[in-house]
Amino acid sequence: MEDDQTPEAVQEADNAYDALRTMAHLTRATHPAPDVYRILGNLKNLGSFLPQISTQLAQGLVKSLEEYDVTEYEGKDPATSVALAGEHLARAAQLAAQMGEELAQAQNAIAGQGYRTAAERRREEELQRESNGA
Questions:
Q1: CA–CA separation, 118 vs 101, rounded Å?
Q2: For residue 34, which of 133, 114, 121 has the smallest C-alpha distance?
Q3: Among candidates 124, 105, 117, which has minimal Cα distance to 30?
Q4: Which residues fall within 8 angstroms of residue 23, CB to CB, at 6 or more apart?
Q5: What is the pLDDT of residues 4-25, one digit of tens each?
Q6: Are 27 and 83 in contact (CB under 8 A)?
Q7: DSSP notation for 10-31
Q8: What does pTM read for this prediction?
Q9: Is 118:68 a contact under the CB 8 Å cutoff?
Q10: Could you give the CA distance from residue 130 to residue 106 in angstroms, rounded to a whole number?
Q11: Dihedrals φ, ψ of 11, to 5°?
Q12: In the chain, where are the structural domains located?
């Protein structure tokens, strides 16, 4: 790989980071349950994808020791660092799966909600007063 070529996986990780950062800003606003339901529907999938990604990254690190001449700062053993990273990635995978389950439960909790805007509610109240007065 040339120095100026960023691997596609790195580019996509950058895009995912940017999307999540944008979501962090956008979710400061008030959103009704149907919108939150749709947001959670997408976010809960992180619980499926992040464990898969974590596992694949750990496997890729192990393979990299065979496919590349891996070096490490101050002469440390790269295999030791890869093993430690693998342990952390395995725990991250478990936590991500749990996060996905919790997001799914949050989505299920609001599945039956709907909403009216304040203007719609006022109009409905006006119509009801008119029909009661007639």
A1: 33
A2: 114
A3: 117
A4: 39
A5: 799 999 999 999 999 999 999 9
A6: no
A7: HHHHHHHHHHHHHHHHHTTS--
A8: 0.80
A9: no
A10: 39
A11: -60, -45
A12: 8-133
Residue 50 neighbours by CB under 8 Å, 6+ apart: 92, 93, 96, 97, 99, 100
CA distance 70 to 40: 40
pLDDT per residue of the chain (134 residues) written in tens, 0 to 9: 555 799 999 999 999 999 999 999 999 999 999 999 999 999 999 999 999 999 999 999 999 999 999 999 988 999 999 999 999 999 999 999 999 999 999 999 999 999 999 899 999 999 998 888 76
The answer to whether 39 and 77 are in contact (CB under 8 A) is no
Residues composing the chain: 134
| Residue type for position 46 | L
Q: Is 74 left (phi over 0), alpha (psi -120 to 50) or beta?
A: left
